[in-house]
Amino acid sequence: MKSYGESKMRFQGKVHKYGININTDEIIPARFLNTSDAVELAKHCLEGLDEGFIHRVSTGDIIVAGKNFGCGSSREHAPLAIKECGVSCVIAETFARIFYRNAINIGLPIVESKQAVKDAQPGDEILVDLEKGTIKNLTKKRIYKIQPFPSFMQELMKVGGLIEYVKKKTE
What we know:
The protein is α/β, with parallel strands linked by helices. The chain contains 8 helices and 7 strands; from the N terminus they run E-H-H-H-E-H-E-H-E-H-E-E-E-H-H. It has helices at about 25, 40, 55, 75-85, 95-105, 115-120, 150-160, 160-170, and strands spanning about 10-15, 60-65, 90, 110, 125-130, 135, 140-145. The protein is globular and about 45 Å long.
């Protein structure tokens, strides 16, 4: 399989932790859906849940959450806002299926790990390696095994999502 660019399959950042059933309206409130401009959406990321998030998040940080992350309406705006505000990866116990697909399509890495979520605390430093299939909590010095992304999904992540992947394939 053709590879596009450097490996972007390792992500390291500080944990921002949330609970269960975080819905897309909490991720990006409906009043901001009059645009699909990622930069504008990022300014309001998680505003429906945590108004201070956008002021605390740094490039590379990681969102950690419980079950059913991204439930609710099937808006692509939610993963787009998360990615554009600098979050490198989302770790949850489970994801709503449509959110999962939308995240992959736009190139936002997401992984499921019940134990990593349980152990992580706000501010912990996490390293996710999607090729090796590991999450390392560097703060707590713990390692969790996850299912490595299949090669085609790794390619989607490396190029920034489905549209860029298709463009590369048709060049």
